Amino acid sequence: MGFEKIMFYIFAAILVISALKIITARNTVHAALFLVLAFFTTAALWLMLEAEFLAMVLVLVYVGAVMVLFLFVVMMLNVNVDELRAGVARYLPVGAAVAIAIILEMSYFILGGFDNSQFTPVTHGADYSNTRAIGNILYTEYLLAFEIAAVLLLLAIVAAITLTLRRRPNTKFQNPSEQVKVRKVDRLRIIKGMDSEN
Amino acid sequence: MIDFTMPDFTQAYAEIFVLVMICVILILDQFLSDAKRNITYYLTQLTVVAAAVITFNQDHSVSVISFSGMFINDGMSALLKMSLYVVMIGIFLYSRDYLVKQGLLKGEYYVLGLFGMLGMMIMISSHNFLTIYLGLELLSLSLYALVAFNRNSPTASEAAMKYFVLGAIASGMLLYGMSMLYGANGSLDFTIISNSINEGSASKQIQAFGLVFIIVGLAFKLGAVPFHMWLPDIYHGAPTSVTLYIASAPKIAAFAMVIRLLAETMPGLQTDWQTMLIMLSVLSIGIGNVIAIAQSNLKRMLAYSTISHVGFLLLGILAGNEAGYSAAMFYTITYALTSLGAFGMIILMSRNGFEADRLDDYKGLNQRNPWYAFVMLILMFSMAGVPPTVGFFAKLWVLEAVINIDMTWLALVAVFFSVIGAFYYIRIIKLMYFDKSETDIAIEGSADMRLAISLNGILILALGILPNSLMALCVAAFA
User: Which end of chain B is more exposed for a tag (fewer CB within 10 A), N or C?
Assistant: First the structure.
């Protein structure tokens, strides 16, 4: 067993354990942090597959931005996990039986089905740019899919704003143009008759 | 560098145009006051009409694949897109009345509606797992937001939540199946996968395994039994204008998705998916028709009716030949039109803050307005499959396709359950004509709404009397 294989199994083990902890952790903040760990180890696995660009994007976007926002939300909402777990004991036997059946069936098919010799991984030298390779096909061969994905993001923005933006009648907000146009007489009232002569 | 041919952008003119108009409407709507909201509405209708003109003028006698094999224009895509536009015009027209009545008239409704239409157009024209999935997500995301559109209604929020969670699971299933087929065949392109399956070099076991997940995903999206549980709750909980949307146009796109994935990509696995579709369709026709009898809410009843119609649609597809596909296509298009009319009637009957979604609201409709009672009669007869409405021919051709592949028992089961199903359609007719009305409030609706719903009813009748022209188009689409 080579060094690479050992590293793979270490990362894979961390990934599986942290994925399990995400759904079993009692504290929601811990669950979110385990999700960060899961993303991070996935990025490490991608690095081993020579997908440097994707690994970097995963760390920057998911670990750096998405998960930070996620943590904020988790900390602001006071989610009571025990309340959500109330029914678990009742549904556990059925759920576990179904899950085990599915796992057995799926592993039976997948383990025997794929002919691994057909797809051997290609290795490249140090001067090979993963980013350039993605860039070359992203805007050519995958142009249509790329554009539709962009439209999907636009739709997500529109949908999120539609569902959350509320205009309440008593909302207070600043009006910059009014603020700029304000003159001295509007704000300052000089009271006469208070000087020392009297 | 890689070798790359510039995509033929003219093939996607309709999609590009719709996208540009979405952006224009989105920005313009921000500058309109509530009194001028009609401008958004007219621009939306104009967009759909112009897209129809563009699609109509495209040459669809030959099938053209562009965008590196991701996009296809053929006879089927042209006909399905044209019927999609017709249905969308009806949806926007009917829903404006409802939105005005319920005080929900906002520009976002039209923007989200157009996003959904764009998603459906992409689904209809997709030739790659990636595009079909992205088109589906574009449609689903806009539907989730539309269901939750009325934020003051707790039932709508609940429906949106259920729809979102179940829709996400269905998408996951579909993606998992696609990943299996990708793993086995080494490509996402429909032509390459189809060839690879025919060559038989990849494992048959994995292909069938992936196929199961794809069928589960499709059945979820179509609402076939046993993956139908979401349908009644969402139909009931969503605002009627959105139920109208979900119940009509997406059926056309879902049909396209089933044809593209099963008939075009996996004809080599036909024996496998045929058996699965038989089970889905028998269960859907049976359970849909029987449970619909117990409903007292019209929207719920129509939801179960949709489930049984999905079963019929699958009958045509499982026949697995051109005759079956064109019969199923005819069924889908005419069902979308009938469903559009039925939900349009609910909107017409509704008043400010009142939804006419109970069966009792239709008591004595004939006394209140004989013409709309007659239109409703045509729509219900068409759903039940009574001649001379179009529903009769739709059912007839689908059953014929099944009998032609020596599955007469399947046709008999379908006929048996649709006779049971005829009961609940005829019950509405009985309520309208033989019961006394509880109110005598006149039916109001804008002039274009009343005209459109009358035309909708007449169209169902006219297509029933002269079904051959539409059927000829459906046959030509698969020739």
Answer: N
A-chain residues near B203 (CB < 8 A): 113-115
Please judge whether A159 and B203 are an interchain contact, meaning their C-beta atoms are less than 8 angstroms apart. Answer: no
ipTM value for the complex: 0.92
The CA distance from B212 to B228, in Å, is: 17
Pairwise CB contact (< 8 Å): B68 & A148: no
**What pLDDT does B1 receive?**
54
The pLDDT, as a whole number, for residue B54 is 95
Sequence-separated (6 or more) residues with CB below 8 Å from residue B417: B285, B286, B289, B290, B308
A139 and B CB contact within 8 Å: no
pLDDT of residue A118: 63
Per-residue pLDDT band at B408 (split at 50, 70, 90) = very high
Cis peptide before B388 (omega within 30 of 0): yes
Q: Would the CB atoms of A148 and B206 count as touching at under 8 Å?
A: no
Extents of the domains making up chain A:
1-82, 129-165
In sequence order, the β-bridge partners of residue B128 are B189
pLDDT for the residue numbered A23: 86
Q: Give the helix, strand, coil percentages of chain B, each rounded to 5.
A: 80, 5, 20
Alpha-carbon torsion (B461, B466, B469, B470), positive or negative: positive
Type of residue at B68: S
Judging contacts by C-beta atoms under 8 Å, the chain A residues touching residue B205 are: 109, 112-113
pLDDT tens-place string over residues B47-62: 999 999 999 998 888 8
Q: Cβ A114–B7 below 8 Å, yes or no?
A: no
User: For the domain A1-82, what is the CATH code?
Assistant: 1.20.120.1200
Reduced to 3 states, what is the DSSP secondary structure of residue B464? helix
